[in-house]
Amino acid sequence: MLGRGISTIALLICSNVFMTLARYGHIAFKDKLERFSSPEKPFMLKGMLVIVLISWCVALLEYCFQVPANRLGSTEFGGPFTLWHLKVIQEVISLVVFSLFMAIFLHEGLKWNHYVGFLCLVLAVYFIFRK
User: Fold this and answer.
1) Between the CA of residue 30 and those of 5, 38, 41, 45, what are the distances in Å?
2) How far apart are CA 99 and CA 111, in angstroms?
3) What is the gyration radius of the CA atoms in the chain, in angstroms?
4) What is the model's pLDDT at position 29?
5) Do the Cβ atoms of 121 and 95 come closer than 8 Å?
6) Under a CB-based contact definition with an 8 Å cutoff, are residues 33 and 26 in contact?
7) Do 81 and 5 form a contact (C-beta atoms < 8 A)?
8) Between 2-28 and 83-105, two packed helices, what is the crossing angle to 10 degrees?
9) Residue 82: phi, psi to the nearest 5?
10) pLDDT tens readout for residues 51-67
11) Does the structure show a pLDDT above 90 at 106?
């Protein structure tokens, strides 16, 4: 059971890395994507469609990790986690990955209110996992 739990969490981490890149990568890597739009028309339809298609391809990789993680971890398939557990684990991982992404690629640090929000998430994990 422990192996399934750790595998589930590892797959969810991979999934969230791709999810974050799919959702926010076009902002973090805007300099590399400038060739798809011009300075006069930053949201040209053709350029936006290309960026959306790139994001969809990255999001497909997200699902290649997320779906197996949820099936492996779900009690419905012999895993250690209920759907409530899986959802809360995924949200906590998502915010940790997003925070790292913001710090590394967009150079934005955490503020006191972010820490308070994370404390609330820790409390959410506690209450969701409480018997």
Assistant:
1) 37, 12, 14, 16
2) 11
3) 18
4) 78
5) yes
6) yes
7) yes
8) 40
9) -75, 170
10) 889 899 999 999 999 99
11) no
Report d(CA 11, CA 64) in Å as an integer: 9
Chain segment 69-93, per-residue pLDDT in tens: 999 999 999 999 999 999 999 999 9
Query: Which residues have C-beta within 8 Å of that of residue 43, sequence separation ≥ 6?
Result: 37
> What pTM, to 2 d.p., does this model score?
0.81
Find where tokens 């391809």 sit: 57
3-class DSSP string for the chain: CHHHHHHHHHHHHHHHHHHHHHHHHHHHCCCCCHHHCCCCCCCCHHHHHHHHHHHHHHHHHHHHHHHHHHHHHEHHHCCCECHHHHHHHHHHHHHHHHHHHHHHHCCCCCCHHHHHHHHHHHHHHHHHHCC
